[in-house]
Amino acid sequence: MAADSKYFLKGYGEHTFKGCLGVCLSISNSENFQKTYADAMEIAFSPIIKEKKRLILKSNDVSSYFSEDRKNFVSSLGVFLKNVAPSVININCVFTTLNPQILPDGVKIYGYGRFPSEFISPIEFLDKLNSYYPYIAAWKVSKFATLRGTNIFLDHFTGEYTKCWGELCAHHNVWVVPSGDLCNSYISSADLITRYIDEYLSMNWLHLVEESIHQSFNELNIKNFHVFYVGHSELEDITPMVKGNIDYSQHYPNPMIYILKEEILKSETKFFESSPSYNNLVNFASLKNAGLKFISYDEDFRYIKKGDYLVYLGKTSEDKAKLIESMGYEINVLSIRDVPK
Length: 341
Fold this sequence. Notes:
Blueprint: E1 2-12, E2 15-26, H1 30-52, H2 59-66, H3 70-84, E3 90-96, E4 107-109, E5 118-120, H4 122-131, H5 133-144, E6 151-155, E7 160-162, H6 163-171, E8 173-177, H7 180-183, H8 185-203, H9 210-218, E9 225-229, H10 235-238, E10 240-245, E11 256-260, H11 268-273, H12 276-287, E12 291-294, E13 309-312, H13 315-326, E14 332-335
Parallel strand pairs: 1-6, 3-9, 6-8, 11-12, 11-13, 13-14
Antiparallel strand pairs: 1-2, 2-3, 4-5, 7-10
């Protein structure tokens, strides 16, 4: 399975409606899916693929290409969905909305063990929930289907420990893939389909309810989908138990690709992410089934494993990469210029 999510935000008059929306794809035949994904990308996004020279696209790439032309943006996402759907067992849509009237005191978080309980408003909780909603979607689907031992791929998220995270990791092989929507076709598909639903509802001024999600699929005559609600009855499962972000040391894929910047240019990240070299590196990551991220010297020493890659951009970052290698890490050190095309 693979899951990704979007934050649903819509203005209705003087009011703003918020909710969480995620898609979890059930896939059994990887080889068949990969071929179907490549064909669907070519059919739906051929000009963007040629422009970016990417094997995998995320929804923001497509959105930027169409700019203000939202009608054709939604149409292209629909074309992708219709063409990729036959290779997916089920397209599982998960959403969360909350009724503030049922929660007059707010949502209770950190209510376990020796940590003090806190209450936050339902809107604040939805903001927090959005940051880790990909795993909420996967948990809901796997629990409903009583699945065990599944490989689950999640786009990178920032979240705290919940009861459902513990359940998910206890029963499945969970992989958190940094830049997953850029270099993992499963996560990219979940991202693009989630964006289609989100944009379809927004364009048609529809609320985030089961009937509206059904309408978005019926528009394309797609049948292999299910819709799940996660909400009030499951708050104890999805609220953070203790403060502190989840440790990804057992959940990053291997290999991982860490980018080491020169830290010379003021907007070095933006320059690099707009460069042909970055597109080449993203393709390299997708072929390696790797995750991709800029290195954090404060955190990633806990996550680097044998076989991972350190990719440096220049002389300064080369020295840093070789210093890390000299400490005994069994890694691959590579110049951005030497990344295979």
